[in-house]
User: Fold this.
Amino acid sequence: MSKVLAVVEQREGALRSTAREVVSTAARIAGELGGSAEALLVGGEGAGQLAGELARWGAEAVHVVEHDALAGYHPDGYVDVTHQVIRDGGFEAVLFAASSQGKDLAPRVAARLDVPLAADATGLEVEGGSLRILRPVYAGKAFSRVTVDASPVVVSIRPNVFPAQEKSAAGEVRTVEVDTDPSAWPTTIVSFEQTGGDIPDVAEASVVVSGGRGMKDPENWGLLEELRAALGDEAGLGASRAVVDAGWRPHGEQVGQTGKTVAPKLYFAVGISGAIQHRAGMRTAGTIVAVNRDPEAPIFKVADYGIVGDLFEVLPRLTEEVRTLRQES
Assistant:
């Protein structure tokens, strides 16, 4: 029987939003292959309490690794235990989220397994018993459809692209004995620095409000923050490369070819001209709304809705309308 493993992420005792997407996608693929989906959850003591949530999205079994040294992400430790579970489980495919952590862990695991990695997939289908993977190439200008001639097939999927669908499953918890020695890990984690406070990471947010040089001054970012707050807790803040290079915003918010690739349901590009570098990071968004005073700005070529006007006049009115609509609903 074909088995598909979903490697899920947790932080500070809570599942990341990508967990349900990865497990749900694994369950769908496993069903098409005539097999079952399982999940791997790594964390500190008590991590196994989250297994029930994974069963809700289709995990027939949840492999749980609990170790004090693995409470937070550590590349060496996570590679050791992930490789161990994959090696012993006989999986046909392994799915990661193409999140910040997944982009670090997935290639390390693939290298340990000596197999290729199909990164940042935006489509997965089973054809003729093989997994076909759709992924963007050339900075998103084209898409390639590939199959991987290796076992297991290791894939990372872009957040917010694969909708999670509930599929109740057994969720049998299987405790994994850790075969790793923290004292032998060559990497030492000094600290983690979280940006944005309680605001969702731009790569995982379902709504993103991004600003560019058209904001004129970092002190004007409050206008974007007000719109983000009006849109709700699932909205994140993004920025163009020019803004980050100027030191206005942290690199963690940068959207684009040299920043983060995002695929939210709704993307606001405010005061962003829309150079190819930026469009490469957001063109797969569900709906794109652009605000720019230049009617010839390249961003309008990919926008679903465009507002030509002074953003300092448009943003306050747009924010107020959003607040009114949310209150009425």
